[in-house]
Every structure is written in C-alpha cells, then in structure tokens.
Amino acid sequence: MNNTLLRFLKTLEYVIALVAAVLIIIASLSLPASVFFSDKTVMQTYFTQSQVTSTLLNRLDDELANAAEECDIPSEVFTDAVDTQLSESAQSVVVLYIRSGTQCNFRKLTDVEDTFYEAVSNYCSENKIKASDSEIEEIADTAVETFISVYSANCNTVFAGFISRISSYGYLISGGCIALALVLLVLVSLIEHFRHNSMNYIAMTFLSAGAVNIVAGVLTLTDGIIDRLDFTGSQAYNLAVAEMLNKSATAFTASGFLLVAVGIFFALRAYSYYKNKFSFYEIDTEIEKNLI
Fold it and tell me: What tens digit of pLDDT does each residue of 215-248 get?
C-alpha cells in the first residue's frame, strides 16, 4: 500500500470517527428530550404539577376579582366558580397546542364558558336580580376572557417547532443517529481489517462525544440559561418547561460520563494490545542477544 493511499485512509478514518461522534451527540441530546416531550402524558404531568397549577390559580383569583369589580358583582361569583379540575383542563389545552406547534384555542374548552355562565346565572337567581340571557352572557364572557388571558400561552415559534418535531420524530432521530454511528464505526473496523487500530478510532469517537456532552451539559446547568428563556410567554408554563429541559440536560450530561467510560474501555483494550506487543518484542530481542 503506497503512502498516499495510506494517508487518505487515515484521514478518512478520522473523519468517519468525527461524524460518528457528532451523531452520538445528537442522539444523546434528542433521546432525553423525546422521553419528556414526545409523550403527552409526561408533559401533561409537568404542566399540571401543583406549583404550576397553584401559581396560575393565584393569578387567576386576582384577575377575576378585578373583572368582577368592573362588572359590579362580588368577586366570589367568579373566583368560586374555578376549581383545580378546570385549571388542569385549561393546561391540557396548552399542552395540546404546544405539541402541535400552534396557538391555544380555549373557545374549544366549552367547560369554561359554561362554568362562568352558570355562576353568574345562579348569582342573579339567588339575589333576585333580573337579567336577560344576553346580559348574563356578557358578564360571563368578561370572566371567560380573563380566564383565557391567564391560561393562554403565546408560544415561542422556535420552541413550538422544536416540540412538535420532537413529539413526532424524536425517537426516530435518536435511533437513526445511533444506528448510523454504529455503521460508521463498523466501517472503520473494516478499513482496519478489524485489527487493534480500529479500537483507537472507536475510543476517540466515544471520548470526544462524551467530553462534548459533559462540558456542554455542565455549562448549561450551572449557567442557568434554560431558566432565563421565555418559551410560552407565561411564567408558570415556563417553570414547567424549564424543569423538563433541565432534566433533559441532566440526562444529556450523564450520558457524557457513560460515553467517556465506553471510550476508556476501548482505549484500555488498545493499550493492552500495544503493551503485550512491546513485551513480546522485548523478549524476542533478549533471546536474540543471548543467541549471539
């Protein structure tokens, strides 16, 4: 084999190992995100966790009280009409529309309109207040609009696109990248005729991918950049999304240590081979000296 071809093959092996490392990084990034965002029940759980629900309910109480004052009725008419179940139903609408990459449409959540209409109607009936259906509906609509303003989410376009794609193709992307990376590593082994040198490239692939994951993950988590991003235009929803992304980043960082461990394993295998080879070389040299 001439030197030019040898140099070409060595360069090709380095490029293949680098591409395989990039694919592994993408897979280790998309897989945790898929776990949290592709399953709507997991996302629903985070969006209806007590902290998010209580934050929204507290804000809604304040906003409904102001709306009731404008309508000249007691604030309890509006605030007592809302319960945790209605709040979680509204949050499920947000999850649905974020996952589809579109904006929220609470008009499809008929429970909201019915709840406030019934509350206003009962108040008028109990207090002998004469009001037409249109008047009751107008007052109830004020509460509905207030409810929507509190629970709606003006999704960041980039974030909505990311979620809609992850929810649809997340596992496919992860599996495809892993499969292609393995094919590339087998290709390196074929070029090396499955000799010890292939372990050097495999070790380099896993060590470089692991190092990138660890550095990027640690910087992201320690800097707190995720907590400062505005995903939905709502502080409560941002809290849920940030927690999910931070856990994804933690899993991404942990995968880096696993990749480094795999890389060290192959590096030690390569080192063991070279060590044994040099030991045999030293023995042969010593035998030759004795024979002379």
Answer: 999 999 998 888 888 777 777 788 888 888 898 9
The two three-digit tokens of residue 163, written as one number? 């979620």
pTM of the model: 0.74
How far apart, in whole angstroms, are the C-alpha atoms of residue 170 and residue 185?
A: 23
Per-residue pLDDT tens digits for 129-169: 888 888 888 888 888 888 888 877 666 666 767 777 777 78
In terms of C-beta density within 10 A (0-12 exposed, 13-18 middle, 19 or more buried), how is residue 19 classed? middle
Here the contacts of 235-240 (C-beta below 8 Å, separation 24 or greater) are 235/55, 236/52, 236/55, 236/56, 236/59, 237/47, 237/52, 237/94, 237/153, 239/51, 239/52, 239/55, 240/46, 240/47, 240/49, 240/52
Q: How far is CA 162 from CA 34, 46, 159, 166, 253, in A?
A: 11, 18, 5, 6, 20
Say which amino acid occupies 110: T
